[in-house]
Amino acid sequence: MTSSTPDAPTHGRFRRWLGHLALPLVVLAWVLCVVAPTWYQAARACFANYDLGIYVQAFARISFADPNPWLSGRQAFIFNDHFDPVLWLAQPLTEVLPAMWAAMVAESLFVLLALVPLFWLHARGLLSRASTVLAAGLLLMSVGAVDALKYPIHPTTWSVLPWVLAGVAFHFRRNGLLMVALVLLFSCKEEFAFVGVMLAVALWLRGDRRYAVGVLVLSVVWLAWVYGLRPRLWGHTQDHVERLGRGLEEGWLHYLWLRVEPSQLSRMGTLLVALMPLILWTWRERLKPDWAWLLVLLPLLGIRFLGMAWRFHYVAPLMAAALMGFLPVMRSRRPPAWVLVSTFALLITTNENNLRSAWRTMVTPLEFPARCPDEPERMASIARGVELLTRERQSPVLIGGNFVALLADRDEIFALGSPQPPEGRVFEWVMVEKPPRGEIWTLTAERVRELIAIWRQDVGAQVIIDDPYVFMAKGRFTARD
């Protein structure tokens, strides 16, 4: 008689194989659903000058001979805009890759390498496989992380790696590694030095007072350089603090309403929801996250709340920082299956729009995104214009923002809709996509059509390309006609 009892050894082998494959499957899902569609869109000139064009031009120009290069597309020196010297760590990639691809690869690597400290803990038996898979899923596939990678590129997204390094170093009292991680973190964006101040408080509270003083000194010196000495020594710096006060001119009630209106609360809630199974399990089991570490969230949350910055690269660090507060919980106890299943279910549902966008990008490239379809005629027209402007390297050129990354190693490139020289500029070349194609932010489609009509009729203009996709001409043009 054949037994109906499940084959226990077979079931056990299946669970072991599932355990071994879970982590590679998370990474594979991230590559296929996030990295590949974003890279494919970059190859099709889908992204505006902000921020891909800005940082690609920085990658193309930064060198020991020119450590703080002028970015014509941004009309600013790169480190007078944001102070993010972490770019120097990725700059060697430009020796083997075009600047745009060096930047794209660097961003993905910084996020992927954030898993290495977790792998190290798992290999040493300090973190269970379930905890490692859970942390990897939250780091790679939370809606904040996905949104950040879909908006390339910015070193704020790169901060995921130093956040995880700092969290591991803090919990394991590796104070030397903690200092290295903080320098790397501060190098990603000037706001992170405020985090160092709160981390000094956390170290003081747990009794590491000597290191608390060291972290506090590092943070204060960094802040003094960024906000005090840098403008005095390097000249005008971009005022990114201004956005924290937007709406205040209309009164405090209006100011606060802008920050707690339903759309803002919805974004905050969407970012938080994937952590709810972990939070619920921690509460039910009466486990304790590291409350001292969670103090580091206060500057991040405050800046994002005041600046209404709950999208794109702004939110990538939040999940990494919050997750490190739960590292002691995941170390002490293996999360049950219901936590893993519900967390990954929430990661899928909160990313529904992102996953749909990724699917359409890869499966229907002739239709989606509509602004940058992978039509052979469109791509051939763009390639023709880029090739010509690459040969004609010295003359000033006004281009659509989505072409900046493709021409980043060329001198005298200016992005339509981005800041222009205050004295005005006459351009020898113009090249833009015709709406509805092309990424024309910050202009409207109507304004771009008006400009094309003016340029086409300009006396002496030599029209090079004027097909359904691209307008390109040589002559004497301005951006404010």
TrEMBL record:
Ranges in coiled-coil conformation: none
Record keywords: Membrane, Transmembrane, Transmembrane helix
Tagged with keyword Oxidoreductase: no
Record Pfam families: DUF2079
Classification via InterPro entries: STSV1_Orf64 (IPR018650)
Residues spanning the membrane: 21-40, 99-121, 133-153, 177-204, 211-229, 265-283, 290-306, 312-330
Name this polypeptide is given: DUF2079 domain-containing protein
Organism of provenance: Myxococcus landrumensis
